Queue: 2 jobs
Job 1
Amino acid sequence: MAKRQIKASSLMQVLLRSNTRLLLSGVIAFQISGMLLLAMKTSPPDWQALLFAAAMPCASAGIVRLFSALWKVDRALLILMLFLCSVSLVTLEDIARSAVTPWQQATHMLGGFLAMALGILTVRKLRRYEKWFLPLSAAAVAGVALPLVFGQWHYGAKNWIHLFGGVSVQPAEFGKCALILLLACGLANRPRMRQCVVPLAVAAALCGLLLAERDLGALLLYFLVTCAAYFAATGNLPVTLMGLGAGVAGGVLAVRMFPYVQKRIEVWQNPWSDPLDKGWQIIQALIAIGSGGLFGMGLGLGYPRNIPLYNSDFIFAAICEEFGLVFAVGLILIYVIIILRGISVAMNARTSFHMLIAVGVVVLIGVQAFIIIGGNVKMIPLTGVTLPFVSTGGSSIISMMGAFGMLLGVSSVNAYDEAEDLKRLEWREANA
Amino acid sequence: MRRIRGAIRAISVLLLAAFAGLILYVGYSVYTSSSRWLTSGYNARLTHAKRTVRMGNITDRNGLLLATTDQDGMRMYSADPALRRAVSQTVGDTMSMSGTGVETFHAQTLLGISGSLIDRTWQYLTGKEYTGEDIRLTIDAELTSYISGLFPEGKNGAVAVINYQTGEILSMVSKPDYDPQALVNRREGADENGSGYLNRCLQGQYAPGSVFKVITLAAALENLPNVQNEHFYCEAEQAFGDGTVSCYGHTKHGKLSLLQAFSESCNVSFAEIACALGSDLLAKTAEDAGFNDNFRFQDLILYESSMEKGDLPLYDLAWTGVGQGTTLVTPLHMAMIAGAVGAGGIMREPKLILQVTGEGGIPRIRTGGGIYRRAFSDSTARTLSDYMRYAVERGTGTKARISGYTVCGKTGSAEISNDKSVSTNAWFVGFVEDERHPYAIAAVVEQGGTGGSVAAPLAAKALKMAIERNG
């Protein structure tokens, strides 16, 4: 009997391990089949798609192996994120007007893996985090303020800075990682009301800067991440609700003050009143979503380029058209699973600092995905943020992967802590 | 730590709820609105698809071919010019001039954009020309052509005939009409009358006039307990608030029962009823019957019937009860209201598509349809039938009688201007009280005169033909 039980438990372990392997093979199958399909669309076959078909599985398997060997990160989370990246590359290879776009995206993702490693290391190595609060805050405020000084207006916002060599970055994207870290540093260990004031003031300052730059999407994200972190850290519901209320009041005020926001809301309520100008984007997105039907037009068979901004803000609509509603809902579910898994990482963390980091990242990814998907399907007014890991945009990809790295870092710390526990248990049993 | 975990749990519940809402919203909006999105004129995909896909056929309920695509990919409509004009707005055209037409609203089906995956794969593998799906309408084209011929020469207006037990639309006539074939050939003057592309059954928003009294009567029956035993005194006109309500042709009806007031279409009595009800109760009954609802039917676009809500001044309320306020109705909706009376208060969702057949000849299963809402309670519907029957037997609607069948109905002569220089819109709404021939009708002849003399005989002939054609 005893023997059988051991067998059962070892079988369980095999299954659990093979689950992530199964998941990874699924992702790889998606990468290969998607890219091969796209390669075969032209004759002679598109070499770039073929290259992707070969390189993506290798990169994915390598990254999973490397990261889990080095730091014991949560494989399921990592593989799900890799799936989102694959969806991004396949979709871009399919719809982007120039072949450079998926190529650039892939390079950004490689940079993103470095950022991810950096995120993991930061979380693993950061010990006396109270000390890091001030430098981080200073860096975040300075970074987010940069476009105000050096930036240029772009799509009605001033959130870019152009570096030499034609490279331009969005500091607000990287500020997200900094915000999560500084909030975790400042709010860890059950702070008193008084101690919360400074971190919240820094967050408010960042929000103010974003308002000045008219980067309302980022502003919304910063605000919600701050609220969530504060609530998680203190459990103080009344103050959190007051904060949210103040945010809503600010939103109402913004609608009154900025005709730009007012226009967004009007377009959201009835895009058909001005279908050729203001409502054009959302109407084209809706048409694309509708033409996809349940199973999509098929790769390379739709016309997603009719949607403006089809590879950044409206990539979800493009995915709906090419892959169909079933796949799109599946994509949303992937975000849901990432959230669930991320929450369980947060729950298993041993220190409040790590918990806050994990929660911050989960809320960031969840809210950002919700805002842009909801905007695409006309559930909420459109706010220009990227679909995490899917939309184009170097700053966004790299910073999002950096943030994700922090979440993986927490999972890695958890894994080491659990291993430590097991060792201790064994030692105790051996010495009992 | 435990407190943090609790907070995290709360946050995750919020996030998950948001995503659940998102998924439901995506599914719901695609399910209910995707055909509306696709058929908007801003969809460049349809124009593209039309060049590469062989568009499916449209037939009427008896299999009569209404639109097809010939060998050269040219769209062909029925060879009978009178017939193709009669169904022109219902079927639509290649140029999407008639935006509510099947050719436009169901373009994704005809072009096979929403076709089944199996069909698409099969066609892809066999390399066959990609064809869309065929649509069989609930329309009886010959009946439609007949009714179109009945329509008074040179007048504009609409006639909608439906089966109130199933919701199937048998006929939609909208005058003036146009020649879709001329549009294909890009001949000039397809729409020689200027407004032929409009399907007045679906898009024409008319002042209802006295046909609205069906709603006022229903509200009275449901909310004023003893109203059936009351009597009204009509002195041809009566003051309400800061104005007067007068009867059509300044007729002095004298002492009337409710039944007589309805069958004689006495404005003064109904203005009094409306004022006794108040605007809220009247609006509630109207909204139960589908007013102010942004109809989102699967098969067709129907413009809404609108009625003003909130506290109306007495004078406005009085005229609203007579159907002469700011209230506007679409003819198909009026036919649905008449049908609901016939069906014991149940209003069916209008059905225009009988069947969709894919490449393999296998009819596609269509979901949805069925009951749209309960418009009246069972007993109210029965009493309404009695009143409408009396109106046709003894009242203003005697010309709507059909020998051998019982017709229930209501006439209307809607004023469309403040002076008497313009002739009234002639209305008739009604239904045949018969298990085997459950047909309801709404007919409106713009500036045709009185409902009793113009619309009622038209409706009688149309219903008679509908009965004859379906044995």
Job 2
Amino acid sequence: MVFSGLMFLFLYFTFTLTLYYVLPRGARNPFLFIASLVFYGYGEPLLILLMVGSIAVNFAFGIALEKRREQGRSAKGLLALNVVFNLVLLGFFKYAAFFVDTLKLIPGLSALNTPDIPLPVGISFYTFQTMSYIIDVYRGKCRAQRNFVTLGTYVALFPQLIAGPIVRYVDVEHQLSHRRENWEMFNNGVKLFLVGLAKKVLIANPLGEMWSVLKDTPDTNGFLGSWVGILAFTLQIYFDFSGYSDMARGLGNMFGFSFVKNFDFPYISKSITEFWRRWHMTLGTWFREYVYIPLGGNRCKAPRHIFNLLVVWFLTGMWHGASWNFILWGVYFGILLILEKFVLHKALKALPAVFSHLYALFFIVIGWVLFEFLDITALWTYLGSMFSGPCIGETAAVYALSYLPLMLVAAVLCTPLPKRLFLRLSAMRFGWALETTAALLVLLLSTAALVGDSYNAFLYFRF
Amino acid sequence: MKQRLRYAPTAVFLAFIMVLTTLFFVLPKEAYSENEKKQLATLPDVSFDALLNGTLTEGYEEYLSHHFPFRETFVGLQSYYELFTGRGGVSEVYFGADGFLIAAESTAASEETVRTNVKNYAAFADAMGLKATLLVVPQTGYALDGQLPSNHLPYHDDRFFSAAEEECGSMTLLDVRDALCGQTDCYYKTDHHLTMDGAEVLYKAYAAAQGLVPFADYTVESFDGFYGTSYSKSGYWASAPDTIETFKSTQNDNVTVMISSNGIDTPVRYDSLFFEEHLQRMDKYPLYLNGNQGLVTIHNPDAPEGKLLVVKDSFAHSVMTLLCQHYREIVMVDLRYYSDSADTTIKELVEKHALSEVLFLYGADSLSTDSSASFKLFYDLEDALPD
């Protein structure tokens, strides 16, 4: 199920929320666990088995690990076994076809059959969450969870299940058993959810409609048309993904949880390094905590440091999807980050702000071309169309003009200014009226958009 | 008090989702959507298999979206919101000047499809030895450029016409572009068809080409409240309706019409060209000859001897109410609705009715989007298929 659908908003959520608050405190976690499994298995009920199985295995590993640690014995072997288990699970469901396809490129192996395994929704997110739990138990940062339902609630919790943020167990350990829901938090949750809903339904979806047209016509777009297209995607993916994160955090608030922020105005960055501190922050934290630092991070000689960075960015790219273009995309950023760390950092600091913004945006946008085209030939064709050919094609011009107002609004919303202004206004005497009007408008227009079109596929579904 | 008002967004949010959810359960469900001309979804059958393969939940989602409270109001809100935020230029129906709602050219439209169709018509006419005429009706957006919003996607009627010209072989191709361009009275504002004024333009063009003297003595009746297909697609619910007219001629007083919906059903006999029960509906265009039917035969005992095969889409319906003054018998086939499994092939129709003339009459829209129907001409006549 997706948040920005009628089924979620008007049936699932209404019932889940009502029942949750009707139930006594002790029954709330079990209810959330079951409700989350329903959310997850909606459409593909068999996936519930996979999820419950994964939770059960990790539950047992957690307890076993802690026991060994308390007995003063090394738990390294158990940890390794667990990591292998989780990665095999992820690898089988997400990367098997990619792996076989790659093997087929080797002469003599071209007769292999590509397995047809449908990707279970959200598996990349919850596998990383369970791994964070086990590794933190191993490191003694948290106690193993002795209550299966509580661990299950953490892994399956529907707000963050499908597209993050990647909530680490240590961050919500206390909330899982001791949270106190309150109106203040609930009200904040509602506002955050509506911000996310508006980002997704009123901005990302329509921009996606334009991109889906221009994406397929690099030959007739003209270079300006192709730039408009990829800029639309640049905005779309930010509003889509950060909108989803906002909805997740808002929903969390409504159930008494508070999740960490996942985006912090990434497009105002002045360097790629800064961009990655502001974009999908929970993924960056995960890779830093569980891959980069264990490899030695930056506390080693330069060649090893470079190697560590490349490993992390190869994996980051691969995490985004089982296709070579994602790896290319990851390594592209890895190389840019290495260049910034070792060569460019002084120059970037000395550069006037406008140029460093342009520098960062240019490479971010080119990055989205790498990200968006699974087919490498189509990728090069599109990239080529951005730097050659006529100015703008007939169809592209009509689309560009039509979406110009929305793109301008979206661009302004990429900066912190509108948020600051809104916060200032809502702190004034009639701020509540402003907030309430905005809430009603978002609800009406989003419902209209959802009733109006069936187009509602999430970009981040292949993760 | 002030403290409580801070929670107003929460109150609005909860009230909004809970009221709409409750209304969804308690409001009566419509079975049919007149705007979309379709049966609305019914609750899916519950079964374990349907649950496992996901069709059950898909069924529920469709049911929810079809029966969502105030559904059409929300669709309208979405349309006007997009229009006012500048996206009218990429909508399916343009919000034009003077109340014109103008359908954008179909994204499926292609010159290639026009070529295929026209080749098929020409080859069929040749193989059957028929004297053939082709009439292509330009799209509203092409003819009424002045009514279009300044930002809109292009119309390719000129290209379609040139393609038809190149492929039409021995057929006579009638060009009505100049006669219709800029003629706002010839097109409906809320529908993609031609008005009776437009139909008369086609009728006169065809009559001139055949050396017939067109009749002009009619009793005109008009009916208000016609909301056509462009209106239904657009969501611009505040638009004013069209008026639909009938041109009645004493020459047609004794006409009988035989209609078979697909060429298989036993034809039903009617004594009028006009089906006034459709005046009760929003879409009144089926007033002419009862809308889309596979096989329609029009007999006019008061007309001079003469027979005509008409292969067409719905643009022909209004034209036929005029043209039947000249023909004793018109056999009208809509290939989209004429069944593959009809006992009588088109070839046999021609032979049975001893037809020697054919008129192919199509709107540029269906001529450029549907290439499958025209192959039905060659059932029983495969040797004549063009390469």
